[in-house]
Amino acid sequence: MGKSGQKFEIDSDYQVKACADKVPNKPNSFVIFLRRVGATLSNMLFPAHIKCVICDHDLKTVGKYEICDDCMRLLQKIPDEHCCERCGAKLSGEERYCFNCQQDERYFDIARSCFVYDGEMRKLIHQLKFSNKPYLARALAPFLYDKLVSLGWKYDKIIPVPISKSRQKSRGYNQSLLLARELAKLMDTTVSCDVLIKTRETIDQVGLNYIERKKNLQGSFDVVNKYLVRGKDVLLIDDVMTTGATASSCANTLKKAGANRVFVLTVAHGVVKLPTIPPTNTLKLSKKHATDI
Ligand SMILES: [Zn+2]
Ligand SMILES: [Zn+2]
Q: Is 240 helix (H, G, I), strand (E, B) or coil?
């Protein structure tokens, strides 16, 4: 236990960090040793603020961003004023809500994302998730921080979108937890780990539309120690929002457990591909057309 009564853990990004509301799960000493060796190697190989994480060129200035000015220009930020009022998807027209938010109930109160999930941002997130580059969470967290500060949301708990135990085992870490922890460091607060959990593996959602994703996720999340979220405003962190089905399912679970409001913040948001049929037929559209990337 830490000085302030918080529990500490050696986590999957190989660092000792404060972890609020953690359900005790002590790794054995050999695992801790390996993770410490990994942490040292990781820090030696990928020191912060020296090279741009996109082009690998030396950064001209040492600041909080690990992306150079040239690469920053390649990323599409989503402005607060030109996005779906509910889920934060970038909109091309004057509509207030995106197709998915118009079609179905969302359980989260509001969601916002920093970037469009495209080009270099898509590559970065792919590397974070699938190429064993957990240090990229450190490079992406400052953008979550900036967005959060500009939005001015007030919340009680930071909770990452969970992944299943088997996915965590094969990947070695939960990228959303790493992002949440890096954000919490910048906010000088802690993450509520293992409060929202994924109870079963679900099939890969790539290629599924909103309704299919919603079905796929049904009953796959749960809240342990419900008293930790009862009456609380939760900030849910994820790497990407595509259709919003995952965020909505997590928010539904949190609210059933008694959470008050659920805000969602993600690094990137997929481009919603709208059906290309005449507007007169819009009302007859099948929800199947509301497919994201
Ligand atoms: Zn660069
Ligand atoms: Zn929306």
A: strand
Q: Which two tokens stand for residue 104?
A: 């179905």
Average pLDDT of the chain is 81
Q: How far is CA 133 from the centre of its chain?
A: 16
| Cα separation, 237 vs 126, whole angstroms | 17
Distances in whole angstroms, Cα of residue 216 to Cα of each of 99, 129, 212, 247, 266: 20, 20, 6, 13, 21
CA distance 213 to 238: 16
The verdict on residue 30 lying in a domain is no
| Per-residue pLDDT tens digits for 129-142 | 999 899 999 999 99
Classify residue 284 by its DSSP letter.
G
Counting ligands in written order, which one lies closest to the CA of residue 86?
2
Residue 9 has pLDDT above 80, yes or no: no
Nearest CA to 254 out of 216, 228, 280 is that of 228
Asked whether residue 194 is assigned to any structural domain, the reply reads yes
- For residue 125, pLDDT over 50 is answered with yes
Residue 190 lies in a domain: yes
Q: Look at residue 71 in the predicted model and tell me its pLDDT.
A: 96
Q: Ligand 2 centre and the CA of 79: distance in Å?
A: 14
pLDDT in tens, 142-177: 999 999 999 999 999 999 999 988 888 888 999 999
Cα 238 to ligand 1 centroid, rounded to whole Å: 24
Parent domain of 88: 77-289
In a domain, 57, yes or no: no
Quick check: 238 and 264 in contact, CB under 8 A? yes
Q: What is the CATH number of the domain that holds 143?
A: 3.40.50.2020
In angstroms, what is the span from residue 86 Cα to ligand 2's centroid? Answer: 5
Calculate how far, in angstroms, residue 176's C-alpha sits from the geometric centre of ligand 1.
23
How many separate domains does the chain show? 1
Give the distance (Å) from ligand 1 centre to CA of residue 74.
Answer: 9
